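Here is an idea for our session: we take a single protein and study its fold together. To get us started, please write out a protein record for me. Start from the sequence, derive the backbone structure tokens from it, and show both lines together. Go ahead whenever you are ready, and we will take it from there:
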Amino acid sequence: MKFLYISICLLFIVSSCKNDTKSTKTESNKNDSITLIEKAKGIHSRVITLDTHCDINVKNFTDSINYTQDLDTQITLPKMKQGGLDVAWFIVYTGQDTLTDEGYNKAYDNAMSKFHAIHKLTKEIAPDQIELALNSADVKRISKSGKKVAMIGIENGYPIGTDISNVEKFYNLGARYMSLSHNGHSQLCDSNTGEKNDVWLHNGLSNLGKEVITEMNRLGMMIDVSHPSKESMRQMIELSKAPIIASHSSARALCDHSRNLDDEQLEWLKQNGGVVQTVAFQAYTNTEKNDARNEAVKELRQNIADSLGTKWYSRSEVRAMDDTEKEGYYQLRRHIIKLADEKASDIKDFPPKVNVSDFVDHIDYLVEKIGLEHVGISSDFDGGGGVEGWSDASETFNVTLELVKRGYSEEQIEMLWSGNLLRVLDEVEAVAKSINS
């Protein structure tokens, strides 16, 4: 009887210990998670977070509708504040059109309207909240003041037309990087889109494009290789006296898309001293996962579009639209996507979205392949970018959190978020000074 009593007591004690151990482990894991989040919050508040690619619609830069409001766009001042995004490069984007005076004039007018919109935001609409930066010193000064920072990049050099003096005009308006083509061959260089059918216009840079590269070096404007063809990139690096950037591209080894950089291109960029701004664009991050999700959600989107009295257009159909149609449709498209995602969340075993973890996989790969000092971060917000967990500027902290989870130090995270890109900007400016001295 005594033995039975002792046995029962021992069983109770062991059972209690097991439960205590389980409870302690759960509590420990919870505390570890809280500690990690707090660590990430501290880092996120101290480093300058910089996104090199945020598209804009001039309709959102008026006295009545603007970025001081929480608009249905991925970038606004409230979203930047909520997510702790310090610097947004607003993009002067013009789609590719005919290589004619008519096309160039139309593109120039479009570019100027976007320059004016950005200046209106920083000088008239919200000068107390955001200021335009022209160099790294400006970025640090403005950020320290508590205001958000705007910078300007040009996506597609097409608006230059055949007048090379426009490069300096755009520089004087605040542009600090420019790509020479977009989706389609421009008068300056071939686009990555030529890879699809192996059809090229210049076999790299045109003669005018070569002059533009020289002019960008003279002015101190960074050369962006995110949309130009591989051969165009090779020739740009060969001609340029300054480091280059890829403002929104990822690793082709992880996602085989012509918008990403293959290992050879990455090595060129490393040797050049440049930086690739890893892009949180689903189709450039994980094509297979993105395609599976899109195939499953397509019917939902089409049904929602029908109920709204419109049509769900594919990306190729959207690209074929003129700029006005495209800008108008993007807002409706985001609304349809949001409604479809809400419906999909209620469906069991629905294919998952490309997420922040998939995105940071590219950062990991690039860091290992070419070194941390050549890697940065971009979103392509309001131009098709965004992944689950970083779907707009309000979720920017999640990128820092994922980097902390993977063991990146504060110094490394600072380099990824802004240090590397600003270092290249400084070096490009130094080259310009040496050219002009």
